[in-house]
Write a structure and sequence with these properties.
single chain, mainly beta, eight-stranded antiparallel beta sheet, 1 helix, elongated, disordered N terminus
Amino acid sequence: MKKILILVFTCAIFGNALFAQNADFKNTFSVHYGASIFNAVKGDITGRSNPTALDSVKFSTAKFSNIPTIGIAWDHGVKKWFSIGLAASYNQGKAIVNDLEVRNNKGTFDKLGNYSLTVPRTTVSARFLFHYGNKKRFDCYTGFRFGAGIWSVKASSNIDAATLNKAINGIKDELKANEIENLPFIDKIETKIKAQGTFVAPQVQ
C-alpha cells in the first residue's frame, strides 16, 4: 500500500531530512522549501547623489528580490537503507535598477534609463539516498543526485530618449562622413529593449 508523506520544510544545505523513503514505505512524494544563493541578495538600495571620482555608474534606486527554492520529489524504496528517485526544483533572483547612468570618457554621466534582470533556474535530477536511523515514520538520509540545471536570463530596459537620440545622431553623422545617407531604419530604433536567453548545465550534488 502506497504511503504519501509531505515534507513541509527541508534545509537543502545539510542534505538530511525527516520522513524520507525506505523499503517500509515504497513510494513517497515530498515537497521541499529551502535556501539558495539568490537569498543572499535581497533588499532596496539607494544610489549616491554625489558619486565619487571612482564611480563608473550611478543610479537612483535598486531593488533585489528572490523566490526561495521550491522543490518536489518522488522516491522509491529499493532496500530499507537505499532508495532511488526523481526531483525537480525552481528558484529565481531579480534585480531592478532605476535611472542608471554611466560615466563617459569626458568624466560626465550619460543617462541610460531603467533596467531589470531576472534569472530563474529550474533543476531536474535523479537522486540516490542512503537511509539510517529508520524507526517507523522517522527517517534520516544522506545521498547525492545528478541531472541538469536550466538557467534563463531575462533582461529588459527603457532607454533614456535623449541618450538614444544622441546616439542615433552620432551614427548619422558618422555615416554622412562616409557618404552613406538615407537609411530610414536608424530612426526606428526602439527605446524599449527586451532580451532573453536560456542554457542548460549539468548538475551534481
